[in-house]
C-alpha cells in the first residue's frame, strides 16, 4: 500500500479515457480508465477499470476489480479515534457546489465506504433493523470534498474539515460531522467484481464531459477526532496510476 500524494497539476490534468470491455460483463462504450491486474494487491481492491456513463440526468459510476468487490472490510476496534474506513472512490472535476457544498473548496469525490466503528448515515437504516445508527459496516455512499491536508502528512489528502465557529454551505443530507461530507443514500450495487452507484443530477447536460478517476483506499479517523477528522492513509490502487482524472462522462 502507498500514500496518496496529490499535486495541483495532477488534479487539473484532464485527459481522454479509453473504452473498456470485460469478457464476462457488458461492453462499456463510455470513456473509461483501465488498469492492469496486480497479484500483489488485495483482489477486491485491485482496480481493472473505472468508468461512468450518463443517461439523461442520471450518472452511474462503475468500478471493476480483480476479485469480488466489497468482499473485504476493515476490522472493528471499538472506538471512533483511529477507526478505519475502507473505500471505493471516484474523484471528479465537478465543483463541490454541484451537490450542495460551498464551491471551489476541493476535489469532489463519490465514495462507497465501510467502517464498523461508527455510523454516518443518520437518515437511513441500511440493515432495516429499526436502528439507523448501527449500519456503518454495510457499504454505503458519500460525497466528500478532498483537499491537501498537511496535518495528515506531507502532501497527503484528507476530507476537508469545518473549522469551529464557521458555517459553510452543506448539502441537505449532511450528517452533521464537522467535515465536508454528504450522506445522500445512493445504494451501491455489487455484482461479483463490479460495484456501481447511480447518482441523480438536476441538469444532466451539465455533467457531460466531467473528468473522473477511480481509487481504492483506506482512511482513518484522527485520534483526537477533529482537525483533521478524516485522513487518507493508504491507497490500494489508482485506476489511472497517477490520479490524473483521465476518464470523461459522456
- Number of helical segments with 4 or more residues: 2
Helical/strand content category: mainly beta
Shape: globular
Note the main sheet: 7 strands, antiparallel
String of helices and strands: HEEEEEEEEEEEHEEEE
* Overall average residue pLDDT: 89
The tally of structural domains comes to 1
**What helical percentage do the residues reach?**
under 10%
Work out the strand percent: 25-35%
Beta strand count:
15
Task: Please tell me how large the radius of gyration is.
Answer: 17 Å
Report the uncertain regions: 1-30
Distance from N terminus to C terminus (CA atoms, Å) equals 32 Å
Task: Write up what this structure looks like.
It is a single chain. The chain has one domain (8-73, 83-248). The protein has helices at residues 8-12, 204-207; strands spanning 18-20, 28-34, 47-55, 58-65, 84-91, 107-114, 140-148, 157-159, 181-182, 189-191, 194-200, 211-212, 215-221, 230-238, 247-248. The chain is 4% helix and 35% strand. It has two helices and 15 strands. Strands 5, 6, 7, 8, 9, 13 and 14 form a seven-stranded antiparallel β-sheet that branches. A six-stranded antiparallel β-sheet has the order 1-2-3-4-11-10, with no helix packed on it. Strands 12-15 form a two-stranded antiparallel ribbon. The model is unreliable at 1-30 (pLDDT under 50).
